[in-house]
Input
Amino acid sequence: MKVWRPGITGKLFLAILTTCIVLLISMHWAVRLSFEHGFIDYIKRGNEQRLQMLSDALAEQYATHDNNWKFLRGNDRFVFQILRSFEHDASDDKHGPDDRGGPPDMPPHGWRTRFWVIDQHAKVMVGPRSPVPPDGTRRGILVNGVEVGAVIASPVERLTRNTDINFDRQQRRSSWMIVVLSTLLAALATFPLARGLLAPVKRLVEGTHKLAAGDFSTRVTATGSDELGRLGQDFNQLASTLERNQQMRRDFMADISHELRTPLAVLRGELEAIQDGVRKFTPESVASLQAEVGTLTKLVDDLHQLSMSDEGALAYQKTSVDIISLLEMAAGAFRERFASRGLSIRLKLPESATVFGDRDRLMQLFNNLLENSLRYTDSGGQLHISAEKSAHNLTLAFADSAPGVTDDQLTMLCERFYRTEGSRNRASGGSGLGLAICVNIVAAHGGTLSAGHSPFGGVSIKVELPLDRDLPGAV
Output
């Protein structure tokens, strides 16, 4: 036997409907208790009013009959005639005022409880045969300030008259009918409400299934600015990121394969030529093989450095470093290599600037940037290195001369293995990973790296690093 298991729409529907039913039943019992207590209090007030009126009327009759109770003993009819006169007077007052002095706003006709009339010696003159209740409501009969008797009514704890009981039952039935009708209305309103509220959730569920199946192009319609709307926007952002990462992974693997294929093909061709006797095994052929092995070694080392920087596995031992002296040291080490290619290095730096960083990684950053300009700048050009200090940051600019790149190429210079058309390609021996490693090193120091057009016709790499005093834990 298959057990029905409600989905999230059914669960939300049942939760809202159950809450409505609990509230309706709670309100029903609250109204019932309020009605019963109010109705009984109403009856008590009516009885107390009648007791007072009856005691006043009996006091008048007692004085009229020579201050004697003989006229009343065992004469229940006399008391009931007085009570009927009260009802008659109240009825006349509803049609207009008169001189009888009848009390206005009389309770409904009929006495709700049993009552007894006793004399000054506590002997029962009128009333049922049962004992007088000690906790009953008592009203004294006063004549000239002297109590000559009393009227006592039994306490009202529950409804006793058939008309009152029938009225109470009618109210109970009506109340339960209201609960049932309200429950049906709540069910009719709750179901479309639950479906409407969960429609974005269903879209997210379907999109998640597609995303889990590898369809990273899936998107959901994000409507509204509430939590579900923001969740839909975050889902679309996640899908875009996964799609981009998948494409980058494919490109990355293709680029690695391409980069490894070329030197391996050269090595294989050289070795086969030597093996077949086409080329002789000379120092020149060994140097050619070593050059290709060096290219492979450089590529593997760059890949290793990039993977470590991506994972944050590079060891950073940060201290307060004068980055200006470090940059001058790196530039000095490259001057001779630049001069051998007809290039010049010009520095425009402040006297000092202290950052909280790793000396070795910062030197690696500068070496990569200098190597990048050395490889891709035409002979006779220049590299201009400048630095500007602000209140909180230090901005370094590495601006070289022609050749330049287009705007589209500029946005992708820091991508791994990115090839540009023209002179700035990997024919000069670069692996295309240097700038990607630089981005990770700068990010590890809390800074940013960006590429722009150089005023000298080439590319300008800007590195922005926070100064030492703005970093927590700085010495």
About this structure: Confidence is low (pLDDT under 50) at residues 95-110, 421-429, 470-475. The chain has nine helices and eleven strands. The first strand starts at residue 115 and ends at 119.
